[in-house]
Amino acid sequence: MKISKLMVNRLTSPLGFDLTSPSLSYVVSGTEAKTQKSARILVSAAEDFSEVVYDSGVREDIDRLDFELPIELMPSTRYFWKVQVWGDNGEEGESETAWFETAKDDSWVGKWISPKADKQIQASVYRDFTVDKPVKKARMYGVGLGIYELYLNGEKQGEEYLLPGLHSYDAWMQYQTFELDVKEGTNRIEFMLGDGWYKGKFGLSKKEENYGDRLACIGDLVIWFEDGTTMTVGTDTQWKARRNKVESSGIYPGEHYNAMMDVSEVFETEEISPLVGPLTPRLSPRIVVNNRLKPVELIHTPAGETVLDMGQNMVGWITFTNNQPKGTKLLFQFGEILQDGNFYNDNLRKAEAEFSYISSGEPEEVRPHFTFYGFRYVKISGWTGEVNKDDFTGLVIHSEMTELGNIETGDPLVNRLFLNAKWGQKGNFLDVPTDCPQRDERMGWTGDAQIFSGTACYNMDTYAFYTKYGRDVYSEQLKLNGSVPDVVPLVNFEGDGSTAWGEAATVIPWNVYLHYGKKGILRRQYASMKAWVDYMKEQDDKYGSKRLWQSGFHYADWLALDGRVEGGVYGATDPFLVSSAYYYYSTDIVAKAAKVLGNEEDAVKYQTLAEEIKAAFQEEYFTKTGRLSVDTMTAYVMSLFMGLTPEGAYERTCKGLLNKLKENNYHLCTGFVGTPYLCRALSDNGMNDLAYHLLMEKGFPGWLYEVIMGATTVWERWNSVLPNGKISGTEMNSLNHYAYGSIVEWMYRDMIGICPAEGEPGFRRAVIAPKPNYVIGWAKCTLDTASGTYKVSWELKDKKLKFCVTVPFDTQAKLVLPDADAGSVEVKAAEGCSEAAKVQAGKNVEIELAPGEYEFTYEPTVPYRKIYSIYSPVEDLMENEAARKILQEDFFDVYGRIPFVKETPVLLDLANGPFTQMPYEKQAEIDAKLRQAE
Questions:
Q1: Distance between CA 524 and CA 10 in Å, rounded?
Q2: What DSSP state is assigned to residue 748?
Q3: Which CATH class is domain 113-244+262-281?
Q4: d(Cα 918, Cα 929) in Å, to the nearest integer?
Q5: Are the C-beta atoms of 557 and 674 separated by less than 8 Å?
Q6: What does the UniProt keyword field contain (predicted)?
Q7: pLDDT value of position 916
Q8: Of 178, 399, 644, 878, which residue is the least packed, with the fewest Cβ within 10 Å?
Q9: Residues 571 and 678 sit within 8 Å (Cβ to Cβ)
């Protein structure tokens, strides 16, 4: 028995984090036991467990995913903990020792200080101190504004960058904790400061000094000595300042570093009172280097430029060891695409995205300190001698999140699409979920964040990341009477809340809860969730309490292709239908969250409100005969996906969606709101083949079009790059914009079929209901959930379906085999796994699975191949030899005089055209023959 992945609030060995409500979790594997019979958790102030501060005792009620530690933790204390588990077969195991360390108490010796120098100077603030006896441990608790790096005796401390990250500085200021190795004798502690988000140019207004106009820092360096005494070195006016070698820096402009700069001039410091919120232990996961990429090519462009191709649209920077002569000025410019073979970055708008370096002639590692770039290509200017691509390394940075899910299929383009979405997440999960990482924006747009959150939770462990973002969301709501701004942190952006964007307050915490099974995220965010729904109700009440949200500005189905203005950003779907649908969706989520938290009064209150909204929606948008009055793809999708379709109107609504696809030649035209739910609505409502058709579409608009065009991340627009390789525009055209990567959630939930069960979140129980299709042949997934590792695969071969499923320790899964007959399903179970009962449920077979490995094989009751029919596009029929022969024999011999026209792409329409009027009996005869064609 192996007990691993010991985590606190989904963090491994957290140092100095906010642990107000510590929740412990662990995973058990490598055992023949099926369930956890009992467990014991020990917490100690000493690594050898000689100072046990908590002993749960052997208990049967310990939750592996969410054990809330019922003790008061002391500040500045490292705790060690371990777990013992007993299985149902008598097997037992004990984990390795893990640790977590609390932050300091609320008192501070240090003061906020700032250099007494020109405000434009990028400064370092430092203090020398002397240690004259053996040290037991040392910590620095502190933070610098805007961005900082901490140095001790000239060595950078910690592996993270861009501290303290981006958050609502005016509402709360998170500080960091560093474990220091001080030496006896004289030491120097130093904050290296840059402008960052806090002071530099940032936000939609492109203003500087959004939060403050002075570089500053505060810190308490605390040393515990072996003799039991302590010493604290706090920031005060005894600290000195000097220039650092960064001449200027900014999130958008980049950084200019002069290794020859004279930094000997010393400045005094002074106490200041920055307009920031109270100092708080950190919530942000570390921003660290997660991948290192080598350039794949050195390009000499037609324009005579020297350009590195990193082979991947990435976020971070490049690094190299300096070998340039003294005084050499190097310039690096960053871009996402080449145009006519030349370097290009006009789509970055006003973001200069540069890094310049003046060489001192000495070898040193060269990298930026106070900025980051989104790029694939790097233009190098000023290099002396030949450029060797192998001298450079791309450092990929993002918030620290363990990768959880991986999907592979029989189609390499689909596999690349999956990777593109994951790379989009890596590039945009940098302390906040940004819309894009490269142009003059890089902000926490809430709409993008919520529609991608389901995919994000499958791909990576985002619990801690979204916990921090949730605090920012609520911090901004408190300023806006519950409204959620379009960007979080707000950064001087005006405007009331908009539907779908505001749902970041409800959808994200609910997704996080479902995936990781911890109630703590709902407790933290419940006030925020309620505030957003209450805000929508307030808007509703202002205009007659119709239980609809029909006021204000809404982005609605942003960037949909069915808008009235060609190339416009607003789709055709009525914004108030979207806002009213989300009004219901969020209210229903809050009702469910209240129930989880045991707040029955709120559960009833919000469930009642949700039912009222649903009734009003149906009355407003559906006719008495069941026709949806807003005839757009997104309107049908939202009504189906969100459960807003009235009884009796279901079939007509499904047909409406089908007709919209047919009108659009079976291409999608949805935007930010409709796209995340489109394929899910199709697969959930009997149109799985169409979901795969949209996935596999290789032309515009479609996911694979981007892949074929060479994309390595997901684009902002369906046509960000035209078929001729030209970028379609520069005003709003990011090539790393994860929103449409939300298709990956459908890949997990429907293609693979693995979903967390709502009543037993965190995959304590999973529903595994794969929906295979012949177009990809096979698919497999490994998912490291909070409960353990699930593996699901399926393969279609020789007209048979084979499913392989692994269910981890102490979990349960309901497997749904599609189009199966219980009597024909062959089951192979690993040793120790009893064969589960097969239950016929309509056209499917359901099986309850205990932990273990299983294999299921059967011939489906319907053919898993492409089915041709009179409803098929004529183009598809003509590409298949058997179908084409049927048409030639049964259709063209009579109606060959009628030319094909693009306005009637489906055979049924052509057969019923004004010059054909094919008899119904003949249509049925042709349809039956086509369905047999292979």
A1: 15
A2: I
A3: mainly beta
A4: 16
A5: yes
A6: Hydrolase
A7: 67
A8: 878
A9: no
Name 585's Cβ contacts closer than 8 Å, sequence gap at least 6: 503, 506, 507, 642
Nearest to 52 by CA among 40, 60, 43, 61: 43
Cis peptide bond upstream of 14, omega within 30: no
Residues 6+ apart with CB under 8 A from 555: 447, 486, 498, 499, 500, 501, 570, 575, 672
According to the model, what pLDDT value does residue 915 have? 64
| Helix runs in 478-624, H state only | 507-516, 520-542, 575-596, 600-621
Record: fold of 287-398: Jelly Rolls (2.60.120)
Reference 456, options 446, 447, 466; nearest CA is 466
Give the C-alpha distances (Å, rounded to integers) separating 804 from 243, 762, 767.
62, 21, 14
Domains of the chain, residue spans:
2-102, 113-244+262-281, 287-398, 753-858, 874-932
649/627 Cα distance (integer angstroms): 7
Sort strands 15-17 and 98-102 into parallel, antiparallel or unpaired: parallel
Q: In what order do the strands lie in the sheet with 852-858?
A: 405-409, 778-785, 788-797, 800-807, 852-858, 826-829
C-alpha to C-alpha distance for 240 and 217, rounded to whole angstroms: 12
Alpha helices in 806-880 (DSSP H): 874-879
Angstrom distance (rounded) from CA 265 to CA 244: 10
Q: Is 612 exposed, middle or buried (0-12, 13-18, 19+ CB in 10 A)?
A: middle
Per-residue model confidence (pLDDT) at position 571: 94
Exposure pattern of 26-59 as b/e (b: 16+ CB <10 Å)? bbbeebbbbebbbbbbbbbeeeeeeeebeebeee
CA 614 to chain centre: 29
Residue written as token pair 């500053």: 216
Pairing of strands 365-366, 838-841: unpaired
For residue 663, CA distances in Å to 562, 633, 657, 718, 807 come to 12, 10, 10, 19, 43
Nearest partner of 714 among 417, 482, 301, 452, judged by Cα: 417
Pairwise CA distance, residues 855 & 825, whole Å: 10
- In CATH, the number for domain 2-102 is 2.60.40.10
What pLDDT score does 897 carry?
Answer: 43
> 239: closest CA among 262, 260, 208, 270?
270
Q: Which amino acid is at 263?
A: V
Task: Tell me the fold of 753-858.
Answer: Maltose phosphorylase, domain 3 (2.60.420)
d(C-alpha 233, C-alpha 635), whole Å: 61
pTM of the full structure = 0.95
Q: In sequence order, which ranges of 597-674 are alpha helices (DSSP H)? A: 600-621, 633-641, 650-663
Q: Which residues contact 787 (CB under 8 A, 6 or more apart)?
A: 27, 64, 65, 517, 762, 763, 764, 808, 810, 811
Three-state secondary structure along 850-868?
Answer: CCEEEEEEECCCCCCCCCC
Q: How far apart are the first and last CA of the chain?
A: 51
Structure tokens at 881: 């030899």
As a dihedral over the C-alpha atoms of residue 846, residue 849, residue 855, residue 859, rounded to 10 degrees, the angle is 0
CB 871 within 8 A of CB 864: no
Give the β-pairing of 844-849 and 838-841. Answer: antiparallel
Say if residues 395 and 316 touch (Cβ distance below 8 Å).
yes
Cβ distance 189 to 150 under 8 Å? yes
Q: Mind giving me the DSSP string for 795-856?
A: EEETTEEEEEEEE-TT-EEEEEETT--GGG-EEEE-TT-PPPPEEEETTEEEEEE-SEEEEE
CA distance 432 to 284: 9
Name the token pair of 173.
Answer: 């200021």
Positions of the chain with pLDDT lower than 70, given as ranges = 891-905, 914-916
Name the token pair of 547.
């239980």
Asked, colleague to colleague, whether 287-398 and 753-858 share their fold, the answer is no
Alpha-carbon span 789 to 460, nearest angstrom: 13
Give the tokens for residue 142: 């502190």
Tokens 């290794």 sit at which residue? 259
Of residues 324, 393, 390, the one with CA closest to residue 362: 324
